[in-house]
Write a structure and sequence with these properties.
By secondary structure, this protein is of the alpha/beta class. The chain has twelve helices and twelve strands. The structure holds nicotinamide-adenine-dinucleotide and 2'deoxy-thymidine-5'-diphospho-alpha-D-glucose. Nicotinamide-adenine-dinucleotide binds next to helix 1, helix 4, strand 5 and strand 7.
Length: 347
């Protein structure tokens, strides 16, 4: 079995690559990644010498490059995670999101389709998507697999579009796919432009914690290794042409999450109660900021027996410990190009 995991040098992708390399010694695992600002091969230092692992530096926006790699390697399975993934960046540069998330996905679908040419026995294309395609919720309710799409940011619009293309290739060309829509992930190797790793970094160095708006925005958080386990399960056991919602039934208002993070870090850093909380700074809101996301993962629970393995408090504590033990990783990724972006965003 030859598996191509796109975006394998990114946050979630690196956990998926690691679990496939370690759990399936008989598979050949290819990590196809362009190494953008968010891609970092250091995330895979522990498995990079394994005989069943190969890194392919390639850009999914480049149709010729992608189709020739597919012709050479004849991947039986694709797990597609490569994307521009940060909502704030999609507000300052929407086109980059169309190019990578929409065009890049169609390039992969075309390459897969033309290699297998309707002979799809034992083949599978897995598209990894987000709960943001469903839009935003009021105080009540959960997103199910039947919730109508209502994307509201350039990021979620580009992911919604890519989801539509995957399903359209399934209907029109019989391409065998599975698709999943997951809630907010957190954990090891999370790039420090997203809420949790950014705030861990800032608490460590005594920098302000920029909470958007009034902080009363709700997200449903899932430990990244639980997402990677769900992807493994859906890739192997999910029904063809089906969609699975993935989430931890774990809703937090941003401000409550930030207070929990501060409290855990005060303990771990030997700081007084309330000390890190003083860094909380309310800043201008994100334009079009979605109020609440919450996933109903009942289908995945019932059909495939998947449940999150850790509570949020445990997962957050493990995550903080990892960041405190890996300050060199954090320094490496917060230098250079990322610094320029950081200045622009928070000036
Ligand atoms: P990330 O930004 O950490 O990583 C993205 C990876 O894709 C990087 O390694 C980057 O180098 C690579 N990449 C970007 N553009 C590319 C291109 N043109 N060609 C090849 N590689 C390219 O993203 P993430 O947070 O790990 O998210 C991975 C996937 O999961 C995305 O599709 C995202 O939409 C989805 N998702 C993320 C979350 C989350 O909370 N982070 C939740 C649900 C779904
Ligand atoms: O829901 C899944 C999505 O979760 C994924 O598809 C995206 O790729 C991923 O980036 C994430 O999107 P969010 O926009 O929810 O994540 P982010 O970490 O950027 O923000 C989480 C919440 O925290 C959101 O309400 C905005 C807020 N926030 C974020 C940042 C970076 C702040 O208040 N301050 C900040 O500095």
């Amino acid at each position: 079995m030859k598996i191509c995991i796109t975006g394998g040098a990114g946050f979630i992708g690196s956990h998926v690559v690691r679990s496939f390399v370690n759990n399936y010694p008989n598979y050949k695992v290819f990590n196809l990644d362009a190494l953008t600002y968010a891609g970092n091969l250091e995330n895979l230092h522990d498995i990079e010498k394994e005989p069943n692992y190969t890194f392919l530096k390639a850009d999914i926006r480049n149709q010729e490059e992608i189709s020739s790699l597919f012709k050479v390697h004849q991947f039986d399975g694709v797990i597609h995670l490569a994307a521009e993934s940060h909502v704030d960046r999609s507000i300052s540069n929407p086109l980059a999101f169309v190019e990578t998330n929409v065009l890049g996905t169609v390039n992969l679908l075309n390459a897969f389709k033309s290699v297998w040419n309707n002979n799809y026995e034992g083949k599978r294309f897995y598209h990894v998507s987000t709960d943001e395609v469903y839009g935003t919720l009021g105080e009540e309710g959960l997103f199910t697999e039947k919730t109508a799409y209502d994307p509201r940011s350039p990021y979620s619009a580009s992911k919604a579009s890519s989801d539509h293309f995957v399903r359209a290739y399934g209907e029109t060309f019989g391409l065998p796919y599975v698709l999943s829509n997951c809630s907010n992930n957190y954990g090891e190797y999370h790039f420090p432009e997203k809420l949790i790793p950014l705030f861990i970094n800032n608490i460590m160095y005594g920098k302000p914690l920029p909470v958007y708006g009034d902080g009363n925005f709700t997200r449903d958080w899932l430990y990244v290794q639980d997402h990677a386990r769900a992807i493994d399960l859906i890739f192997h056991k999910g029904q063809n042409h089906e969609t699975y919602n993935i989430g931890g039934f774990n809703e937090w208002k941003n401000i409550d999450l930030v207070r929990l993070l501060c409290a855990q870090m005060n303990d771990k850093l030997g700081r007084e109660k309330g000390e890190s909380e003083k860094l909380i700074t309310f800043v201008k809101d994100r334009p079009g900021h979605d109020k609440r996301y919450a996933i109903d993962a009942t289908k995945l629970n019932k059909e495939l027996g998947w449940y999150p393995s850790v509570t949020f408090e445990e997962g957050l504590s493990k995550t903080i410990d990892w960041f405190l033990e890996n300050t060199q990783w954090l320094e490496n990724v917060t230098s250079g190009a990322y610094q320029d972006y950081y200045q622009k965003q928070y000036q």
